[in-house]
Amino acid sequence: MNLILQSDVSDAVVNTLKSWGFWSAIIATIVVIGLGFLLTRKNILKKEWDKVLIKMVMIIGLPALALQGFLTDITLKQLTSEGFVLLTGFLFYGIMVFGARLFYLKYDKDIQDTLTMCTALASTTFFGIPIVRELFGDGSLITANMFNVPYRIFLYSLGFMIMSQKHIGAALSRKEKKAMELLAIPNKEKNPEGYAKYQEKKIVQRNTNLKNIFLNPILICTFVGLFIWITQLIPGINCVPGKPFGSTTDFSPLRIDLLFPPIAKILSVVAAICTPLVWVAIGMQLAAGDFKKAMRSKTVWYASIMKVVVAPTIILCLTCIIAAIAFAGRGNEPAMTATALGVLVIMTATPPASVVVSYAIAYDKEPQLASNLTLVSTLLSIITLPIWVIIVTAIGATPLFG
């Protein structure tokens, strides 16, 4: 058993270091960010153009990416077998989106929000999926897509809400904030007209915030896609003959990508603009600041360690706990595979999601910090990802994971 385990660990390390999928993801990230950096430093790109690029991503690219992610087949057997992955994903992101803030309580609110989201939400789609596919084969893609369901829900809903929220007077004490709020409110008796205008403005602001949240194209496409994905389980809904549309199986009439194949191509092309545009914008943000200072920032290094070391450790522990409980409840029958364990940990150990960085830039929420964190954590992941492969290979060889 020890010899087999040692062989598995050795093979995992060698395959990781030999994998072009692994190195391509890392090199592409650095090169495209560097391209944005150099073009801005040479004044070929203007520093203020980053917001224009991000606007395109937010309105066009990300909604397409959100919808595209859910346009995939589903069966009850797959849903049952991957149910524990789904459960782990929801628990993990629920814990991290709210709990990761504990790592950053000493910072201002805007910094807390940005670092929390960067720690909780990784680049699972572009950075994570190519790596796990190379490491664990095509069979790992089902698990990766299941894990991305709660990821996308949290990323495009709570992630957006938190990153778009503005904090006024974040450096003030609670009493000082309350005093300023009271001074800003006109006296109802002495100034009824001013008070009425204040209330009207407050209602308009609230309605605007609700509109920004619930009419956000990313969020709308996320829930539309989730609806299409889940309804494929309804008996008899897969009634459209697949052969005339080039599909090997019948499919749901809601699968617009199969019903009209050009839609799939359109979504694919439009969604593809997200990563390059966001990374160019990151490079532009880096060019606006001090690159050496970013590497010397204790905050950036601290958050990077939280991202590529602590966050994967948390999901590793959570997965083992869920697997152990299920193992005992199912009569010593494994509920999760070693591949599932590897996919969850490796995808979590990737740098922050480019979507979070786009939020930071779009809503002016510490964009420089988010960009610097992405660069440093990307460099760190070159070291940590092979180590995580060794760890999950060793733990995956235990009876808990079959």
From TrEMBL:
Topology term for the membrane: Multi-pass membrane protein
GO cellular-component term (any): plasma membrane
Alphabetically ordered keywords of this record: Cell membrane, Membrane, Transmembrane, Transmembrane helix, Transport
Family matches, as Gene3D superfamilies: 1.20.1530.20
Domain of life: Bacteria
An annotated GO BP: transmembrane transport
Location(s) in or outside the cell: Cell membrane
InterPro entries in UniProt: Mem_transp_PIN-like (IPR004776), Na+/solute_symporter_sf (IPR038770)
Principal place of residence: membrane
Keyword field contains Metal-binding: no
Statement: the UniProt record of this protein carries the keyword Protein biosynthesis: no
Stretches that traverse the bilayer: 20-40, 52-71, 83-103, 115-133, 153-172, 213-234, 263-288, 300-328, 340-361, 373-397
Pfam families assigned: Mem_trans (PF03547)
Protein family according to the UniProt entry: Belongs to the auxin efflux carrier (TC 2.A.69) family.
Protein name according to UniProt: Malate permease
Natural source organism: Spiroplasma platyhelix PALS-1
